[in-house]
């Protein structure tokens, strides 16, 4: 039973060749030394500088086209793509119904703008698909699935969402560059890497935040030319979601003061104020938009220090007791049930505080917690977890770019697109609705149809769930009318749906 828990609750699901070592806790601990932060598939994807360069080029092209449109009157011409075999020499349509259906004229400049947008969107979608495929392949073949699960946990904790076009290509690089290298380090290092990554700076509008009393803010206000000002989004989410948690002793005034301290934190090529050189998308501090002065946040004074002012706040937040409680609660919920056991929360919080936020110390406390080893399944798998577990069970080693994107859209958990900074819910009620279950059943039937010829579900089941296969599931597999039906039943069995 413990091996099944290690494979499924701590890991991402067993593979056909996996064999229990008989020491599940040692197997989990050993993964901390075997984890690869940059496997080949992820190393081959584009990094944030390349993605940012393409975005900046697109923005520049769009800006030039809009200036051209503003400088010259529109020229209406027939749309060649909508006039059938017509064009310049086409016969005019007959009066009446044909005339009413004639396509509207298209301004060539608008057409150029639309084309530029479509080309940029197509390239970004390709980068996104490749990044999703790299993430998926890492999860499918990893020999350190416990650590891969933790990578995905932190990526959801520091959620960005691809609702914005700038984030579509940058969400993957943020996980690969800011989460993976620090998943076995200190929480403060991961926090710093995430808050300075262009994906987060753009998603929560930090890159365009301008201190009202800064040099740029005062100049723009004097001219009255355009609206610029303080943006509190990132400061608020750092306090509410990334560190302390909601309603944990800070006020609106603290959010505003923290936002003022953070002004000047931006991404090269995206922020407001004077243009800066450097690597596109890289973190940059721009003194000209930084709000001058000391800041008082949660009763503590942070002297004026430019970039270091917000950094000092972030350092304090990273080791705050409320942050330890927040992180401990989320981890306990992830490994021990939707209602996290208070004793386990206390244990993880203590490990966090005593170690100064050393994450492996916290992970070892999770492994040592008896609440995470109860025999009854404690979590309902999310669509991502279920899909990865199914493909590991089938021995899949790689998926084509686009395949996982489509599947996760179908199952209701698009990758890196929770639609909100809080990320996807980690609760059964979010994922266990009848419609969601039916979509998994349909997907399982497709997987089983393709894999049944090489897979014996009755032999595979004890490998996936050693000493944990229920009599009901075993009997259902025995009574199945075909190998395909048996495999489909296994993929949607209670053992596979829950962990």
UniProtKB/TrEMBL annotation:
<dbReference type="Pfam" id="PF08811">
    <property type="entry name" value="DUF1800"/>
</dbReference>
<protein>
    <submittedName>
        <fullName>DUF1800 domain-containing protein</fullName>
    </submittedName>
</protein>
<dbReference type="InterPro" id="IPR014917">
    <property type="entry name" value="DUF1800"/>
</dbReference>
<feature type="region of interest" description="Disordered">
    <location>
        <begin position="70"/>
        <end position="89"/>
    </location>
</feature>
